[in-house]
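step: validate -> pass
step: tokenize input -> pass
step: predict -> running
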Amino acid sequence: MSTLGNFVWSIADQLRGVYRPHQYGGVILPFTILRRLDCLLEPTRDEVRALAKKYDGGALDVQVKLKTGLAFYNTSKFDFERLLEDPEGLRANLIDYISHFSDNIDVFERFGFEAEINKLDEKNRLYLIVSKFAEVDLHPDTVPNAAMGDLYEHLIYKFAEASNEEAGEHYTPRDAIRLMVDLLFAEENEALLEPGTIRSIYDPTVGTGGMLSVAEERLLERNPKARLRLYGQEINDQSYAICKSDMIGKGQNVDNIKLGDTLAHDRFYNKHFDFCMSNPPYGVDWKASEADVKEEHKKGGPNGRFAPGLPSVSDGQMLFLTHLAHKMRPAHEGGGRAGIVLNGSPLFTGAAESGPSEIRRWLLENDLVDAIVALPTDIFFNTGISTYIWVLDNTKQPERRGKVQLIDASDMWTRMRKGMGSKRKEVDAAAREQIVKIYDAFTEGENSKILNNTDFGYWTITVERPLRLNFSAARVTDLDDGALAKAFGKGADPAPFLAALAGMGDQVYLSQEKFIEAALEKFVEAGLKLTKAQYRHLARSVGERDESAEIFRDAKGNPEPDTSKRDTENVPFTYSGNTLGDVGRDGTVKAYFEAEVVPHVPDAWVDTKKTKVGYEIPFTRLFYTYTPPRPLEEIDSDLEAQIAKIMSLLREVEA
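step: predict -> pass
step: emit ->
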């Protein structure tokens, strides 16, 4: 593969001067696809030409499929060999060739290939490039389907490298895909080995089709008589074209690869799948899809794919997570499994009842999360951050129901001899086998934690503390017109009231009641009247916070909260070892409040109207192992040794 990739890449040398390195892919990739299709068509070319004389349109599609087994064809009289026989007419003949593919081959227009052909012809490079590709044998007997997929991705990596792009935006490392596939297939090992097994798999961010290819490869390794139907949707034109071309070579139905924005328009809205998998972009906003997503969230109903909630517009990962959960085959039809690679954000981002928290709540309360695996850092081409494989299942095995397995595989890797972008580590076969064994065993251990779904839930309670104010009538002169109107009545002349209050002097009252009594006495003397509510407004407006003062109360005598001291606490569903059904929300919150809050702030209370439900998955905290600091004596000893070494070196220099 390395030799073949380097040979195809070397053809790009013929483009120097005419194209810049970052433009090479627009020529080399469509020519590679064309040569592959040309080799695939070679054995049946004459038969198809004969059929084309008898049939056309849909009838020809049926006849070609029936007679040759191919889902595509080309009715042109040209191939690479005949193209080279007419150098003068090469441009027109090549355009004729690509225009005579069956309607399901729309890949060349995605590259703007005709414009590139014209440019190559104008710059006197067309014959040279075609002749070079004619020397490359890309027949499946020479380059199997798996190797062809690797070739496409090798070329994409090289072109991305040349143009300073992120190769990881286009495809996912094979080792990460193999691990995800093995985890997906783990629960169906026996069923997948049955003769004639047929399954479907779907990738909503299919890219060049690498995930689908590896899934098919892994299944056929286990059961050569199995059949995996591949489906995918891709937003990038060139990646879509490459994926579709790769599916053609595999004998897959090319109509199962769709072009478009998955979040805005689900091209498989009426289909579900046995397996789903995806590696969506991390931290990428979904502004372009925002209007469609919010409209679907609003009108999709409780069972819509975005019904659970919407994450921040700055990161769309969790939209793909809920999308996959809805694309799994329903439980009553046999169920489905899904795997998705995400960064750490979806585990914990978002407060209680925010979009991300509500998504986690929906997944966990519906028992859809089977396992989450922490991967090693530095295994992807475009990021070195921590990543996780989420495994979803809507028909869990009995022992897994109501539970989630967390697997820490962050140390299960080998270092690559040569890094590729950010990728410096790989999950080799031994590490993959170790991870899958931990998953299969479903037992607690150093790298495995098994928790109940309810272990991830919590209530966010609002803890209030009373407002304490002192009062002084002297502050009334600082009030604006609005505050005066609220205290003395709209349209009332404040002058008599202010004059009456002046008689109270600068005295500071620590009690709301005593201040109102004193003000009432002055107003009665002046023949003025206020309602009880107005007296409270007056007191509130001339009050200042004072911890030594009495509690300020509302009309019903209840303490008013001091918003500056308002706090929130997260109370786990399982606080004090309770399960959710033991004492319920009120009992658990009360136990927490009395044990964790009251000893520190005895005058506090919980505003139960503001209690919210949240879910988070504190993966790192659950696997954290405390390492005590070294003893001071040991540190001092090391410092003395280093100082002695430095002094020895200084003496040598002075000597």
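step: describe -> The chain is about 45% helix and 15% strand.
step: cleanup -> pass
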